[in-house]
Amino acid sequence: MIYADNAATTKLDIDAFEAMKPFLLEEYGNASQPYSFANSAKRALKKAREAIAKCIGAFPDEIYFTSGGTESDNWAIKIASGEGDIITSSIEHHAVLNACNVMEKRGRSVKYIPVSREGIVELEYLENSVTEKTRLISIMYANNEIGTIQPIKQIAEIAHKNNCLFHTDAVQAVGHVRINVRDLDIDLLSASAHKFNGPKGVGFLYVKRGTQVSAYLNGGSQEKGLRAGTENVAGIVAMAVALEKNCNGINENREKIKKLEKIIINKLDNSGVKYIRNGSEDHIPGNISVSFKDLEGEMILHRMDIRKICIATGAACDSVNTNISHVLKAICVPEEYIKGTIRISLGKDNTEQEIKTLTDELIKIVSNADCM
Fold it and tell me: Which of 33, 86, 166, 228 could disulfide-link 159, Cβ–Cβ 3.0 to 4.6 Å?
């Protein structure tokens, strides 16, 4: 099998897996308990919080453990926005868009900022959309479908100039590009472990010191009383190991993946097939969104699947829904190309031979679609 859908999920790192095992089989104590058997879990949580904070330039007490990116996004949208209005973009992940939709049903105003053909938020439109009632601006760091990286520091400046909080869904970016929340002046940041070779079902929300947020889950006193529930110690430990490992190898991984990306684009360019590439030059390494003229992305996906090659069409988190992606609509992909869009997302474990095989098979499918 050739796996090229790393934007949907990544393979669990072996070192992260090994780090989990003691807390599943031996040191399984509840970190909230006062007896000595719980001390190992307590220390592990402290160490993991420190490691994660260091990876993004934060303080340990600014890291709150969650079940993943969706929970972190919902916490930011539903709680951090207080009673004020919200501004977001038209190409956010559904974790943000659907949370905003809930807030609209509760009577809150939400404005959706358009993007350019490359998927970049229109900054002037954003600034002109802020009112005295705006409390939160939430713009994703990098898009999950087309990989475009937003001008985060400029967006944060607009937010703070207008006395707003700035949240970024950085699920696709954390562990893949260097992020320093201090330098970027981010107030809240969401991340999910399974996007950077950690386990599924665990993530974190960064909350800048001094930012007023109330509890998202009520119950026990975990996470300073703001996120109740017994901590997933094994998952948290593995998340920290995976993030540290990815951040330490970020330059090496980037160069490798960029080389693999170039193989795909060069082969497509030399094949004669009619396609366009979506997104910006400034994108998450290995996130390749391409649209083929007068074809169906679902057809391409299934024929690649027959060849044991995993890619995506549209948003992988919404694969049951075959409607045209809201992201592709927002960036105005031409009508004759939009239905033929696929996403290839490469990871550090992909090999050059895999990518050559993947691209050769893809070209065969799109070149001979009418006779298959």
Answer: 166
